[in-house]
Amino acid sequence: MRTIFSTAELPPAEAFDYWTDVVCANLPGRWVEVSDRTKFYAEMQTGALGDLGLVSWRASPSISHIESSDDLVILLPCSRGHVEFVSHSFEIDHQNLYLFDVRQPHIARSFGPVERTLLRIPREVLERRINLAASVNRPLPLRNDLAVLSAFVRELIRIGPSGLSGPAAATISQQLLDLTAVAIGSLSGVTPRLGAASQYGTLKLRFAIDRQLSNPATDRKSISAAAGISERHANRLLALEGTSIRRLLMERRLAKARAAFEDPLQRHRSIGEVAFACGFSDLSHFTHAFKNRYGLTPSDYRNTR
What we know:
Blueprint: E1 2-6, H1 12-26, E2 29-33, E3 42-49, E4 52-59, E5 63-66, E6 71-77, E7 81-84, E8 89-92, E9 96-101, E10 106-110, E11 114-122, H2 123-127, E12 139-141, H3 145-159, H4 166-188, H5 200-211, H6 220-227, H7 231-239, H8 245-262, H9 271-277, H10 283-294, H11 298-304
Antiparallel strand pairs: 1-3, 2-5, 3-4, 4-11, 5-10, 6-9, 6-11, 7-8, 7-10, 9-12
């Protein structure tokens, strides 16, 4: 885990304003309020595990307005609070786990100092495994399979994913997705769709793609060869996940660019620099593809963070 923000070295008068900038860049939030800015403190750590994002933070008591995001968020609270949606509301406590579909705007209030851990999951990868409609935006009792899931995520954050090799991170990422689907399915007796995403051949393909993202000459043939799989078999494996080498390569490149635009430490990089580092050789093609995927041009997306 990497500490991307801490008020420890900041003057109290600057701490809150800087914190809100970081929150907007790394969490699906748009504004935060605190009762006393002069005593504000906060710290945020982030990490990546394949397609998944890990975030841990602590802060002064606050009120947050959370707006739309493409990701699903699994929240593992260590402190109490209250969440209000348009149609319903509920309290947050350490006895439950929460799966947020944050396409629905809501307001989160803490009852004291904030301590939170969350896992950000691309919506489509979890929805391919299980129907989430009955499980989102409500408390999920933290017992049995969900207790195991919570412990797994907390241990990953404690150890930190940065020391994992590429294949290990890809393997654990897929296992974590499968465990999440199983744990949610156990609440309603639903059997999730598992297997294809965890096959070793698919993991090798994903790792080969991630290693070649920055190479604009990368193609289906070179990726299949790097994974030690025929191109035909590679596309057959990925078809089980509803994708292909070409589509997955594009998705991973765009996701890498998106992560760069959300990282406050990379704000000095130009749009073109990020695009070329992600393997795009044509800036107009990158802009068009990014807007098709995320609904905003790269510059507009960066300005909303």
